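User: Can you recover a sequence for this backbone? Please restate the input before giving your answer.

Assistant: Of course. Working from this structure:
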């Protein structure tokens, strides 16, 4: 419970802290021996001090250009069409797997699909073979659908 609450609170606090740090003034001081020191206050005894204030304006924020709405809409529709194709292919693959599983599990004859013979044994009747043909047709149909995509 503690970690569920603590982690988001820490992230929010760090984000707020980072914004306040980004707006501070930075001083670049060049010492007489040539070394450069960056600090939040100018260093005494420095030969040269330059002040740098980061640009925190909204000038980097881009708004959609007036003519770009159509292009944006076209890109959105293309992305949705591509996602629809991916979804349809996934459904076709799932249908093929289910048909193949049904065929594999349907090999055993069901009750009533055997007929006794005169010799005392049994053989598979027409209902078994009709069921096997339906299962194979389902697999073939699912495979054709997947191949068409």
């Amino acid at each position: 419970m503690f970690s569920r609450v603590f982690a988001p609170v820490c992230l929010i606090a760090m984000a707020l802290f980072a914004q306040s740090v980004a707006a501070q003034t930075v001083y670049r001081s060049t010492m007489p021996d040539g070394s450069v020191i960056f600090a939040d206050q100018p260093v005494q005894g420095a030969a040269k001090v330059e002040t740098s204030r980061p640009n925190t304006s909204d000038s980097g924020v881009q708004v959609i250009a007036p003519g770009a709405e159509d292009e944006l809409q076209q890109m959105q529709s293309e992305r949705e069409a591509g996602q629809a194709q991916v979804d349809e292919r996934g459904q076709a693959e799932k249908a093929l797997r289910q048909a193949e599983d049904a065929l594999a599990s349907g090999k055993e004859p069901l009750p009533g699909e055997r007929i006794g013979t005169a010799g005392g044994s049994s053989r598979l009747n027409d209902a078994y073979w009709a069921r096997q043909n339906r299962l194979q047709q389902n697999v073939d149909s699912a495979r054709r659908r997947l191949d068409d995509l």
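That completes the design. The CA atoms of residues 55 and 93 lie 53 Å apart.
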